[in-house]
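> forwarded from #structure-qc
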């Protein structure tokens, strides 16, 4: 939601979204940066966003606005900060120090945008910085990545396949969430749904959205289906039976099912439970 748009900040309170990204970066013109920062800080302090996680996307520390953005956010107390164009583990550490200086608690979230070729080439290093910082999520910036790569994406996002897969792989290696990039053609509902399903296939946990009309379709794709949830509960129940205690593999409905499937089943049930809590 553009931080310079007061109507958008208010409308966000009614969206069926898990996270609200209140933006001070790309959607805000340079001449309105200061006013947007003040508006976002005021909106966060006023509250009213319910169970939704509120994350402020700040400008990069290298810009004239980045540190002031983090200081203002620290005073307003959102759930965390999203930093753009991060390209190294050292930058993550610098951002984490800035959050500490701004008064953010240790459990505040630090999200970073992955949107440059250098970030992709250093993705493992960036992810590893989570071991000593607040880093908890990657957000793909596919628009900026396309520009920097001089790529010409098709409907299947063919030029990004390596970048998408590497980002998810690095995130999983360090226990981070991974959020897919935006879809620009708001009027193309079928194309948007297809890209959501592709993101799910790559392993992303969700998708960043640029219009309220995209929320319901995104939620439908990334939430476990009733069939998936029923299967997960069956797997959990089967492993809980006394006769299966201590077993590493059992047969369920004719399928060989291992402990790794049990862990995935527990994750699916946990995601469904969290969705119900937020509803």
């Amino acid at each position: 939601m553009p931080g310079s748009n007061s109507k958008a900040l208010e409308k966000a309170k009614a969206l069926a979204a898990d996270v609200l990204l209140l933006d001070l970066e790309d959607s805000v013109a340079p001449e309105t940066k200061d006013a947007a920062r003040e508006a976002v800080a005021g909106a966060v302090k006023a509250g009213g966003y319910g169970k939704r996680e509120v994350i402020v996307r700040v400008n990069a520390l290298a810009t004239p606005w980045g540190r002031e953005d983090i200081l203002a956010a620290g005073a307003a107390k959102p759930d965390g900060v999203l930093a753009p164009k991060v390209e190294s583990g050292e930058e993550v550490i610098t951002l984490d120090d800035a959050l500490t200086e701004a008064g953010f608690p240790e459990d505040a979230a630090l999200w970073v945008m992955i949107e440059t070729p250098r970030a992709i080439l250093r993705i493992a290093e960036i992810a590893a910085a989570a071991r000593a910082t607040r880093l908890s999520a990657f957000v793909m910036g596919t628009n900026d990545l396309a520009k920097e790569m001089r790529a010409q994406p098709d409907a299947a996002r063919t030029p990004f396949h390596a970048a998408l897969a590497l980002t998810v792989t690095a995130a999983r290696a360090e226990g981070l969430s991974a959020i897919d990039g935006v879809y620009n053609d708001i009027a193309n509902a079928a194309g948007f749904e297809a890209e959501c399903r592709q993101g799910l296939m790559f392993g992303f946990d969700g998708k960043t959205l640029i219009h309220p009309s995209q929320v319901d379709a995104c939620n439908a794709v990334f939430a476990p289906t009733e069939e998936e949830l029923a299967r997960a509960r069956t797997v959990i129940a089967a492993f809980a039976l006394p006769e299966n205690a201590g077993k590493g593999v059992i047969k369920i409905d004719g399928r060989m099912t291992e402990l790794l499937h049990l862990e995935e089943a527990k994750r699916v049930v946990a995601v469904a439970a969290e969705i119900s809590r937020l509803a």
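QC bot note: The CA atoms of residues 30 and 209 lie 23 Å apart. The chain has two domains: 6-222, 226-278.
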